[in-house]
Amino acid sequence: MSPPRRARTRTLAATAALVVLAATGCGGRATAGGEQVTELRYQGSVGQVTLPELAEDLGYLGDVRLDWIGNVTGGPQDVQATATGQSDFGGAFNGAIVKLASAGAPITAVVSYYGSDAQSFQGYYVLDDSPIRGPRDLIGRKVAMNTLGAHAEAVLKTWLAGGGLSPAEIRQVELVALPPVNIEQSLRQRQIDVAVLGGVIRDKAVANGGIRTVFTDYELLGAFSAGAYVFRDDFIRRNPETVKTFVTGVGKAIEWARTQPRETVVARFEAIIAKRGRNEDPSLVRYWKSSGVAGRGGVITDQEFATWIDWLAAEGELKGDKPAPGEVYTNRYNPFADGGGA
């Protein structure tokens, strides 16, 4: 069983405290003679291609190279690894970034990398014969998602509250964290009642049949960028040109994928997976439709952070005063912010 909300809040607070403590004890990476770092450590995703990986393969990162150090299943862990200096950049749901930043983690979001639109979104799925239809039907039910305290939980609780559930009733909805590749199977084996599925994993599950949608984040909130890549503040100060190259490259990769035929993008993903030799199943990328990023070139808007700042504040999950969106992100390194970048 998942821990009660109060226990989860304590866990999140303890994690944030550890991140801040570790971050204050490690300096940014440096090179001989003060040259900027040109090799970026990062975590990837099994059987999928990230935007930085696509950017590198397309030649959009110039002299900057990526150094894969392993795979990640959840955004908060990815950003925590960046905040503590284990990786150079990481990506997560904007609300998770706000939570860490408000706790003192020295990180700044620089470019959006995923979101929801009519083609790519996170859906809340049940088996065809499930009695679950609306918010009140979830009381006492198990909902599985890739990680707690992030996108899926925030959207679910927004939907539940909008459906008239009280805070006490919302706490009766049991949240379960599972690796994304295992969620569909758990639903079909009736170990959970609702599966949160997104991207190619969702499309593959839908193609397998036997499940239906309860609601989606796109239906609830419309098109929006939901997550961003972050760097440590000291890394940005020491390596501004590297950060600009990275952000520009990711922005170009977003636009390349947006403007190419779907078959061209999928073929490129399959080739990247084959070349990197990680013994992966490439079938997931064949269901790719879009990145879901709303802004051109991954440009971030205030609203994409303000929505979750307000939600977290209402949940009592922020320490101190609410941060302004501009304190958490910057478009300074993104040429698309001024209409350039092509």
Description:
The chain has 342 residues and is α/β, with parallel strands linked by helices. It folds into two domains: 5-116 and 223-338, D-Maltodextrin-Binding Protein, domain 2 (3-Layer(aba) Sandwich); 122-221, Periplasmic binding protein-like II (D-Maltodextrin-Binding Protein, domain 2). Helix content is 41%, strand content 18%. It has 13 helices and ten strands. It has helices spanning 5-24, 51-57, 75-83, 94-102, 151-162, 167-170, 180-188, 199-208, 217-221, 233-238, 240-259, 262-276, 303-315, and strands at 39-44, 65-71, 89-93, 107-116, 122-127, 142-145, 174-177, 194-198, 211-216, 224-232. The chain has a five-stranded mixed sheet, with helices on both faces. A three-stranded antiparallel sheet has the order 3-10-4, with helices on both faces. The longest helix has 20 residues, at 5-24. It is globular. The model is unreliable at 1-25 (pLDDT under 50).
Strand order of the largest sheet: 7-6-8-5-9
**What is the number of strand segments?**
10
User: What gap, in angstroms, lies between the N and C termini?
Assistant: 49 Å
Uncertain stretches: 1-25
Give the count of structural domains.
2
Question: Level of helix content?
Answer: 40-55%
What kind of sheet is the major sheet? 5 strands, mixed
Fold-level CATH name of the largest domain? D-Maltodextrin-Binding Protein, domain 2
* Second CATH tier, the architecture of the largest domain: 3-Layer(aba) Sandwich
